[in-house]
Amino acid sequence: MKITKRQLRRIIKEELGSMTVDKRDQLMDALESKYGLKARTTEEFGSGSGGVWLSGESDVPETAEGLPMFDYYLDMDPYEFGVHPDFVKFVGEYGFFPEWNDPGTLMLWRM
Fold this sequence. Notes:
Layout lengths: L4 H31 L4 E2 H4 L6 E4 L29 H8 L3 E7 L2 E6 L1
Antiparallel strand pairs: 1-2, 2-4, 3-4
């Protein structure tokens, strides 16, 4: 059986698309179960597709030390651009990274 380059590209695109959605869904479920976060898609926010939208203002989980897991205005060690390294590592395990959209909106994008 022969397939054309066009058919192969379509197959690869469909597979990559389904993997992205699966990983995102897994991440959203994990954020809710581990941190109690209400995660929504970036499409719901009206932004680019494929990401996760989190509120940076309400119900922000805390570290073991009682500090917020993420806060736009935190500029101290060990935070990286207002996000605790433990949270960066957690979302990184799913192939995502955090990026602030604005002080009250944290987006998670695929690496």
